[in-house]
Design brief:
The protein is mainly α. The protein is built from eleven helices and no strands.
Amino acid sequence: MQSQLDKKKCIVISALDLIQEHGFHGCPVSQVAKNAGVAAGTIYTYFENKDDLILGVFEYVVEETKKYVSERDDTTLKFRERFFNYWKNLTDFYELNPSVHGFYDQFLNSPFNSEEIQHKPNAWHDFAYAFFEEGIKLGEIKELNPIVLSILVNTNVNSIVRIKTNFKKKLARNNMDLNEISNLIWDGIKAH
């Protein structure tokens, strides 16, 4: 028998996959329930309505992103190596989880990304802020606003994953190494 937590996670993952495939509007609650293997009414045990479900998916995506990147952050390494690991881990996470990457992109460009949502605690943003703040305190990166650093790095990773997904053959044909971008970013933010 599925536990309550398992059912909720199945519902969220089902919604995540459907949103990736069909967008927010092409993701009816009935189809989410069917794909999750639960009765349609079960969704309303966890979420008030479809909008609440989408916000639940957003919370899941934020937590999973933070978990993946933070669990792989080896604080015993020099900050430079930690930076490149951060970059690699975020890239790997998005490439391993295209539905998360696609959802995050859609969500940020949708009315769901309201002022109210932006003011709520966000585990991923908190981790990224603390990460870059630590680099500043260690004297390894320039004294810039950690939010600006996070935006600079995270949006570049997001763009690179999108380019690698959409232009895979062209990149291979032109023998392009997008890893050079992380070096350029590092050179731009490093303190020395």
